[in-house]
Write a structure and sequence with these properties.
The structure is a single chain. This protein is of the alpha/beta class. It has a single domain, classed as Aldolase class I (TIM Barrel, Alpha-Beta Barrel), CATH 3.20.20. Bound molecules: D-xylitol-5-phosphate and zinc ion. D-xylitol-5-phosphate binds next to strand 2, strand 8 and helix 7.
């Protein structure tokens, strides 16, 4: 499967956000991971519509919006209007997941479904057909710079097996605590979309991106 790098701008320096995003595109990253937090589903608040609108046409990268918000259905239409190409919602945040995924599809974008570390991967089973992508959180959502939780590996492996058993080749995204040093482990487990925040945006953004892309391109 195609391996994709999704740098999370949560760890960017917002003084020069645009320039830094361009560096990730030049380095080969295909996605921009856009973390939206509401101060309820997660304790913190990040950024929202105006920032998304500002960056939407900056590069040709796919905008991958990760909605860490309660009842995301309230906000979906507006985030798509602002430029999101993928909307990922949380299993734990929705009253009616099937209706919410239908809503995302009706807006003409891809639907991702995410689980927090404490949620078993089997919770995704009823949605394997309907969703386009599955996001396994490898840290407790809410903040960048946390340590990768090792139990995530088994969840990724199980999810890849569940998809294979059904003959489905769908994207598995992983998010939280991923660095150059451990990315191969999540690829081995079956993930193919890699979110990285601090590992990209702390230090030389272009060089960090290129080093990730080299690992992804040489994998297999
Ligand atoms: C955390 C966010 C992540 C975060 C990852 O809740 O969903 O996308 O930016 O940051 P790192 O890669 O630093 O763990
Ligand atoms: Zn995220």
């Amino acid at each position: 499967m195609k391996k994709i790098l999704a740098p999370s701008i949560l760890s960017a320096d917002f003084k020069t956000l645009g320039e830094q995003i361009i560096e990730t595109e030049k380095g080969g990253a295909q996605y921009i991971h856009f973390d939206i937090m509401d101060g309820m589903f997660v304790p913190s608040i990040s950024f929202g519509m105006p920032v998304l609108s500002s960056i939407r046409n900056l590069t040709g990268q796919t905008i991958d919006a990760h909605l860490m918000v309660t009842e995301p259905v309230r906000l979906m239409e507006e985030f798509v209007e602002c430029g999101a190409d993928i909307l990922t919602i949380h299993y734990e945040a929705c009253t009616d997941i099937k209706a919410d995924i239908d809503c995302i599809h009706s807006l003409g974008v891809k639907a991702g479904l995410s689980i927090k570390p404490e949620t078993p991967v089997e919770a995704l089973e009823p949605y394997l057909e309907q969703a386009d992508m599955f996001l396994v959180m490898c840290v407790v959502p809410g903040f960048g710079g946390q340590t990768f939780l090792p139990g995530s590996i088994e969840k990724i492996q199980k999810l890849r097996a569940m998809l294979r058993e059904r003959g489905m080749e769908k994207d598995i995204e992983v998010d939280g605590g991923i660095h150059h040093s451990n990315v191969t482990k999540v690829l081995d487990a079956g993930a193919n979309i890699i979110v990285a925040g601090s590992a990209i945006y702390k230090g030389d953004v272009r060089d960090n991106t290129e080093r990730f892309m080299e690992i992804l391109r040489n994998y297999d």
